[in-house]
Write a structure and sequence with these properties.
With 447 residues, the chain is of the alpha/beta class. The chain is built from 18 helices and 14 strands. Helix 18 links the parallel strand 13 and strand 14.
Length: 447
């Protein structure tokens, strides 16, 4: 099938590459000329394991191409995927300006029956706005062309997006047209050969499903962080608690790892957007607001521990920091906990020596020539001469470090672990104090 994808971010590029990989003829459109130029030269603008190889071989095979020409993109196919960003507006609601701009382009250039697929994460009711935008352009042209709008939300985890797309748990299709449903069934046929993963529903339910899924996962994280904060004050070990409750199949082990807060492009934005949607219809979403509030506070917990250790005096202190991306296997720093920690430290007069396996360029882009930040080439360089070590991202290469070298290189024998990577006894054997999240007593020991 010929397929058009509007947007070449995480969702658009992964979707386009994976659909091309199974044989479809995909044209990806983006208004960012620099990004398209890079893609045409084989440069991938984001880090996502496995994506570069798929893009390269599908481009070479002629099944994946790129353009900045909206008219060319619309005329390429009768199936138009909208996968542009929906950043939070000032009030936290989803900003739909890019989605509606694409819808207007489709209405401006389409010349036959078209299926418009909302792949972006959008609030309930967005399909109606997309329909209205397309219809307005057709009316301006004096045309009575048929079209359908479908909600097909993505469920891709950054760092595992290729596998998630190729082996989906479910493929949600929200539509009110058999004709459109048949086209989407054909698109996703290669991913349904073992068993049918298609789940059909009405459009508004599909739109809400995406937000509900992310909000529930974020709720599990904030709940565990709340329990971890209780554990510290009660002298309990949250890791033992986690294993105890995770063994219950009704709860499971997924998303019950406590830490220094969740980040990324989805959870913070989607929880806020769903809460603002509730506000818009006069409903107070108390649980969603609490999830957001707990996460905001949790992002400051690591700084609070460091500050308490130094009795509130961080002027001139140097913090070695491992991990800048919001999670492993990505260079994405949107809403990353490391950003909150660094900014808190700078306000208190400290400086930071940081290392991340993939997010160094992104950090440089965000903070430029920030004098209080030194980006180091290795994790060993990041701790050399630092007062203490802090960890914000659970990259694999941080899991089994040389604890002896850590103890020898930092001035104060203390590790502040925002991801609970280690067992306290292990660090104690190397003469290191260990302040993690919810690991029992002595978490607020001062020097």
């Amino acid at each position: 099938m010929n397929i058009t994808i509007f947007g070449t971010g995480y969702v658009g590029l992964v979707t386009g590459a994976c659909l091309a990989d199974v044989g479809h003829n995909v044209l990806c459109m983006d208004v960012d000329q620099a990004k398209i130029a890079k893609l045409e030269n084989g440069q991938i603008p984001i880090f996502e394991p496995g994506l570069e190889n798929i893009v390269r071989h599908t481009v070479e095979a002629g099944r994946l191409s790129f353009t900045t020409d909206a008219e060319k993109a619309v005329k390429h196919s009768s199936l138009q995927f909208i996968a542009v960003g929906t950043p939070p507006d000032e009030d936290g609601s989803a900003d739909l300006q890019y989605v509606t701009a694409v819808a207007r382009s489709i209405g401006q250039y389409m010349d036959d029956y078209t299926v418009v697929v909302d792949k972006s994460t959008v609030p309930v009711g967005t399909a109606d706005k997309v329909k209205a935008a397309v219809r307005a352009q057709l009316d301006n042209r004096g045309l009575e062309l048929e079209f359908d709008v479908v909600s097909n939300p993505e469920f891709l985890k950054e760092g595992a997006a290729i596998n998630d797309f190729m082996k989906p748990d479910r493929i949600i299709i929200g539509c009110d047209s058999d004709r459109a449903a048949d086209m989407l069934r054909e698109v996703y046929y290669p991913f349904n050969r073992n068993h049918d993963r298609m789940v059909y529903m009405d459009i508004r339910s599909a739109e809400l499903t995406k937000y509900a899924a992310n909000a529930l996962l974020a709720t599990k994280i904030s709940f565990m962080n709340e329990i971890a904060n209780l554990a510290e004050r009660l002298g309990a070990d949250i890791e033992a608690v986690r294993r105890g409750i995770g063994s219950d199949p009704r709860i499971g082990y997924h998303f019950i790892y406590p830490g220094c807060g969740y980040g990324g492009s989805c959870f913070p934005k989607d929880v806020q957007a769903l809460a603002r949607t509730a506000d818009g219809i006069g409903y107070e979403a108390k649980l969603l607001n609490a999830v957001e509030s707990v996460n905001y506070a949790q992002k400051h917990v690591l700084f609070d521990k460091i500050s308490h250790y130094f009795r509130g005096d961080l002027k001139g202190k140097v913090v070695g920091l491992w991990g800048l991306a919001f999670k492993p296997n990505t260079d994405d720093m949107r809403e990353a906990s490391a950003r909150t920690l660094m900014e808190d430290l700078w306000k208190a007069g400290a400086t930071v020596q940081a290392f991340d396996p993939e997010a160094m360029e992104e950090t440089q882009r965000i903070y430029g020539d920030e004098a209080r930040l030194t980006l180091c080439g290795t994790k060993e360089q990041a701790i050399k001469g630092a007062d203490v070590l802090a960890i914000c991202t659970e990259w694999k290469e941080f899991r089994s470090p040389d604890f002896k070298a850590i103890a020898e290189n930092i001035k104060h024998p203390v590790v502040f672990d925002g991801r609970n990577l280690y067992e306290p006894e292990m660090l104690e054997r190397h003469g290191l104090m260990y302040y993690a999240i919810g690991r029992g007593r002595n978490q607020f020991h001062s020097e």
